[in-house]
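Hi U.,

Before I forget, here's the chain from the pilot set. I'm dumping it here mostly so it's searchable later in email.
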Amino acid sequence: MLWFERQLVRTLMQPDLDDHTRADVEAYVDQTLRSMPEHLRAGVAAETFAFGAPSLVARAFGRFDERRLGRRVERWRSSHLDPVRQYVRLLESLVLFAENELGPVAAR
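Structure:
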């Protein structure tokens, strides 16, 4: 999983998850992205580079802020551009599935 994808996954997770579950969710999303066919994964990676460029620059200058990323994700969810909305939906659906399947409630 690329750095920016990991940041998005952390942003999309429920804030009340314990550290173990958060790690499991990240691992699930990472494995799912790795198992995608190469042509699909290349498209997702290209979107990650395009959407993550401002965050990578901010990180390079020590100014990366997760709250700002959270606000950006909220704007992306309601974007008029389909690829932007679909990118967030892809990662959000993987996170949501993993939270429900791997979280503490699922273990009961």
